[in-house]
Amino acid sequence: MPPAPAADPTAMNGENLRWKKFPVLDDGFVTLVDVMGTDASVVQAARVSYGEGTRKVSDDRQLIRYLLRHAHTTPFEMAELKFLVRVPMDCWRQWVRHRTANINEYSTRYSLAIDSMQATQDDGWRSQATHNRQGSAGVLTVADGHPLTQSEQELQSLARRVYEERLAAGIAREQARKDLPLSTYTEAYWKIDLHNLLHFLALRMDSHAQLEIRRYAEAIGHEIVARLFPLCWEAFLDYRFNALRLTHLDQGVIQRLATAGSLPADRQAFLAAQDETWAGLERCREREECLAKLISLGLVTEG
Ligand SMILES: Cc1cc2nc3c(=O)[nH]c(=O)nc-3n(C[C@H](O)[C@H](O)[C@H](O)COP(=O)(O)OP(=O)(O)OC[C@H]3O[C@@H](n4cnc5c(N)ncnc54)[C@H](O)[C@@H]3O)c2cc1C
To answer: In terms of CB atoms within 10 Å, which of 121, 174, 244, 250 comes out highest?
Structure first.
């Protein structure tokens, strides 16, 4: 059994983390406003259910790991975190899909829109992924990126100028804002319990999430949650974020490869052992996902 992580007296806690700004993107940030609870709160909540009698057989770390492994969710809901975040609006649009948080956002009906738009650097333009219609793949070269950076600057400047002209003409802020680009930064308070925050982080730190929101999720996870809830964080990484889920069909493929004695398998052996419902399909996303899992486990060789 690995030893419990040693307590670090210089480690950041809820007190010295509060209001510390963690920069994200070119002008965004996440900052912790408030936190209720620690790893101990999760344990305390769980022991109401399991009773003190379990203490001898299960220390706090083991209990947290057990809870997370077996999706016992409510003890993690006993801890709450409140953040102030500054995010481009397109990223925020993805963020607010997570319905289990409480939000108060900066009002551009009431106040002037924040005079900052997320700008892309020359080497920050990503090409469209061919295998995943939602994703991006690699970056364009600097030579390719430069004109795009230039036109983005022009567009953002024009949009801001038009916005300010409308305000100067006496147009209401709620209408003047309508042509501001989605790259405009907004700010919001965002409060969420630890269970739903871990769910958010699992989805938004994942490589399938858009890079911009991933950067925010990584800052929240690594800079804040990891420090405030080290045991929960460790269990989250082990049993959720870095875990690999084998479906019933995946297990069948592995069993057939093992029975045939062809492990590690090459691609041809993998195809011979694939699920029968995939076999007739020229393209099959589930088969590709299974192959990727088996390659990551060293059960199938690449190539
Ligand atoms: C990589 C990626 C790509 C995406 N692509 C798209 C897309 O193309 N189009 C699109 O529209 N969205 C897209 N989304 C958004 C996605 O479908 C979810 O809306 C978003 O991730 C919020 O997830 P959630 O509902 O689990 O989280 P939350 O809203 O925080 O909810 C957490 C959990 O609470 C429960 N819950 C919350 N509200 C309800 C409810 N009303 N009824 C029942 N259970 C509830 C569910 O179990 C849910 O999983 C994408 C998300 C990701 C991560």
So the answer is: 250
